[in-house]
Every structure is written in C-alpha cells, then in structure tokens.
Amino acid sequence: MTVRARAYLLVAAVRHSLVGIFALVAADTFKSTSFLPLLNVAPLWVWGLFSVGAGLLAGFGAIQGGLPVARAALMLSATLTAVVAASLLIAVFTGQLTSPTGPIIWVAVALKDFIQCGDPLRSPFEVLMTRIDDEEAERDAEAT
Amino acid sequence: MDFQGVASLILAFVAVAGAVTSYLLSKRGQKKDELHQEAANRLAERIQTLEEMKTIIGHLREEVSDLRNEIDRIEALGERRLTTQKERCRSRLDALSATLTALNGVVLSEVARASTVEAVEGAQQHVDNDHREP
What we know:
The structure holds two protein chains of two kinds.
Chain A: H1 3-25, H2 36-41, H3 44-64, H4 67-93, H5 101-117, H6 126-143
Chain B: H1 3-130
C-alpha cells in the first residue's frame, strides 16, 4: 500500500475515532439542533459506535496494509460521512443549522472518501521493489 | 408523513446510495490496481529480457575481440613465414644463379676447349696431309 493511502486511512481513522468517542462519552455536548435529522434515525450512541468502528477499521487497514480491510474501511467511511453530510444539509434546509460551512466541509470530505475508493491503493512496483530488495539482501548475505 | 419521516427516508437513501457507490468505486479501484500491476510486471519482464540481451552482447563483444586478436596473430605468423620463405627462395635463387653462371662458364670453356682441340687437330691434320715432305 502506498504511503499516501496509508496516511489517508490514518487521518480517516483519527477523524472517525474522535467523533465516535465524543458521541459515546460526551453525548450531552451534542445539543445543537443540526444533529436532529441524525438523531431521528438512531440515537447518538449508535452513530458513535458506527464512527468508532469505522475509525478502528481504518486504523487497522493503515497499519496492516491489507487491501481488503483498507477498502472496507474506505467504503464505511465514505458512506458514514455522506450520511452525516446529508443530515447537516437537511438541517440547513429546515433551518436547524444556520451556517452552511459544516455541510460544505462534510460533503467535501465524503467526496474525497469516494474518490479514494475509486483509486488504486497500491503502487504497481511495490511487489517488484520488495522482490528486488529481497534478492539484494540474499546476495549480500551470500557475499558476507 | 411528517418531515422527520421524510428526512429519515432521505438519510436511509443516502446511506444505501453511498454504500453502493463506494462499493462500485472500490471495485473500479481494485481493477485499476490489477491493470497497473500487470503493466508493471510486463515492464519488469521486458527489462529482464533487455538485461539478459545486454549480457549476451557483452559476451559476443568479448568473443569478437578475441577472434580479432587471433586473426592478427595468425596474420603476423603468416607474414613471418612468408618472409622466411621469401628469404629461402632468394638464397636458393642466388645459389642457382651462381651455379648457372658457373655452368655457363664451364660450358663456354668446354666449347672453347672443343674448338681449340678441333682447331689444333685440324691444324695438325693440315700439317700432316697438306704439308707432307716429298
């Protein structure tokens, strides 16, 4: 997996984990009416669990470097972020949120997640470079 | 249906659409991954083949250089032999010329002797026959 893909997953992991942890341990702080569309679907702790789950999956994918886990994490992140973005947009249209900046940023982050889903996560030369490195290490070992 | 219901429906739709879209995009990303990997593998094979051809060309160049040196050596050897042969031929020729000259001298002296003998015999005969005392 490329360094860029790992960094992206790590950032997503931190984002989802922090939002999820806040939703789980500091639910009282989520008093803004902008969250009402979300809270009408499910209680905050459910969204907190989803968010923490997405964060853990993304973190695991970033550290382990396995493509299936990374792709699952990106799909979950994109979907969750899109739902939150849609919820904030609804809040803007219903007057429950006055500033549009929140929805703009969440929509942008959701779109970035979707773009990352559609991109390769690995450099095609990673396997070859690993093979060349292994062969050179073997040759050095034989030389010594 | 109140607006909350509609909002919930919209969010559910966004969730399903988001999941499907992310899945399809992820499949496309995976496919791109595989295509790039195939292209990189083909490129690596081509580089490997070129490296092998480079090695073969290196060996062939060494062989050509060795052959050139061998040809120069044989040519030099041939020239020395020819020179030696030429010298031998010249010395034989010189010897032959000397022999011929000597032989020629001998032949000439033989002819002169024969002519002298003939002349002497002729003169004697002339003295004996033509100048007999009565």
